Amino acid sequence: MQYATSLLPTTSNPVLRWLSNTLYRKNNLFLFLLLTPPLLWFGVVYLGSLFALLWQSFYTFDSFSMSVSNDLTLDNYRALFDATNLDIILRTLSMAITVTLACACIAFPIAYYMTRYGSRAERGFFYIAVMLPMWASYIVKTYAWTVILSQEGILYWGINHLGLSSALNHVLQLPAVGGNTLATSNLGRFMVFTYIWLPFMILPIQAALERVPTNLLQASADLGARPAQTFRKVLFPLVFPGVVAGSIFTFSLTLGDYIIPQLIGPSGLFIGTMVYTMQGSIGNMPLAAAFTVVPIVLIFIYLALAKRAGAFDAL
Amino acid sequence: MLYKIKQSNIKMRFKSKANNDQSPTWLKTLAYGGLVFLHFPIVFILINAFVAHDGNNTYLTLKWFSAAFAREDVMSAIALSLKVASVATLLALVMGTMAAAALYRRNFFGKEAITTMLILPIALPGIITGIALLSAMNILKIDPGFWTIVVSHATFCVVMIYNNVVARFRRMPHSLVEASMDLGADGFMTFRRIILPQLATALLAGALLAFALSFDELIVTIFTAGHEITLPIWLLNQLARPRDAAITNVVAMMVMLITAIPIIAAHYLTRGTESIAGSGK
């Protein structure tokens, strides 16, 4: 066949031409060739590693010789339910839940204002203004907070100038919240977590709010509902899937974090810091591996609950 | 990290109607207060990078920048991070595009499983990915170093490329490809002349996001880096050295700029791509 009338210059090499025609005709072969490299990479490198990790959670750690042997055991999983380890899990879990609630409370007014009242330019501005801190380097943001919360930092300076230092001391003496200073208190850790994951909550709520027709709110007002009633009975149920969608991020990100608990807050371990010290300084890889199963299980439970709340349609 | 992926594709669905209602003052205060909360640590770092104390005087200066650039450890950390991010992005570009090209028009058994697998490295907490790769390296007796960092970064960067490219593929009418073939172009020619130009901005945007993601990734890197020091690891080590704070501030600011610029660029690159040449009816 001649292609002399073709508008485009074609590949002159007949071998290449044959190759491209074969690939176009043998659809499945082409698919196979395209998928092989990514599948090899993910199947071998990534899933292989995950299974290696899970497998090691059944190994035995000898605490006298500080070495790992290949005898299979369920002891590591049993150890998760020891009082100290259960404490770690509950501590992390309660922090994740508190941070999620706080993020929802702070995010809602921002998202609501930008969607409902912001002019077009203002909405664009809010969008960028939420995106930028979200993408800004995690370690830089954490670093900034360690400086802000330190005793020579700007927060203490402001509190002292406002004459609130005695109030702060009272707060810091509360049992579950407090600590010696802001930087070593649960309050400080909670502030940093809330700050870092807040943008992840704003955007899904904003997306859910965009989909609520304004006339539903007007109708509710016309029928005599007070603003608070409209919020409770109309707006919130409609936006709830968006809140749950955002909470997936705040919840699972807090659950798996191990840098912030190391840098800010009291000395008690989190799941992440526990995993880190177990594999690092102690070398108890089996227990570390068993501990990584905890956030995986918790996140899957949470995802199942979120799915029931319709969060996945809100993403 | 998961949401970063999501939002890289989702465009804001602005209502076309302008909002005429007046907002209550308390709501406006809360909203802008929230923005202030989101930005003041960042502004704080930016200002600190330019401030010097001298006895009782506080003044603006650029001297910390030259001090930072003169530090060998800073420069080598920056160089390593740039190198890792570039190589990881390149690998992710190839694999992400291949996966996108394979999956966008086909339906077959196991397709869902493959897309889930691509998302998994960022859906699971970073510590799990990190420790899993580390345990595999221990078993295989691989020494951590430059290439182990690259492999770990490429693993979670693939999905950034995949998401951007697959969205573009879906909006690209297949009739363009058929027309090109009808006019006598073979597969390679069609790829170069038709598909690649259509994909170009999606590839670039995905690559920018992947680069930014890799450049400031810390959680996974700690496990796979061994003795190598990337820029985020350098910053983390720096937290134990408060006397060095001035240099740390400058480097922190640079990290923020190096990640912010690609993010904004990617945002503008993917804006308004809903109507691609040839897809209008």
Could you walk me through the main structural features you see in this protein, from its secondary elements to its overall organization?
The complex is a heterodimer of chains A (315) and B (281). Chain A has 315 residues and is mainly alpha-helical. Chain A folds into 2 domains: 14-43, no CATH class; 80-314, MetI-like fold, CATH 1.10.3720.10. Chain A has helices spanning 14-25, 27-56, 75-79, 83-117, 120-135, 138-149, 154-161, 165-173, 186-210, 214-222, 227-256, 260-263, 271-282, 285-308, 311-314; strands spanning 60-62, 67-69. Chain A has a two-stranded antiparallel sheet with strand order 1-2. In chain A, strand 1 and strand 2 (67-69) form a beta hairpin. In chain A, helix 2 (27-56) crosses helix 14 (285-308) and helix 10 (214-222) packs across helix 11 (227-256). The longest helix of chain A has 35 residues, at 83-117. With 281 residues, chain B is mostly helical. A two-stranded antiparallel ribbon of chain B has the order 1-2. In chain B, helix 3 packs across helix 12 (245-269), helix 4 (72-103) packs across helix 9 and helix 8 packs antiparallel against helix 9 (187-215). At the A-B interface, helix 1, helix 2, helix 4, helix 5 and helix 6 of A face helix 1, helix 2, helix 4, helix 5 and helix 6 of B.
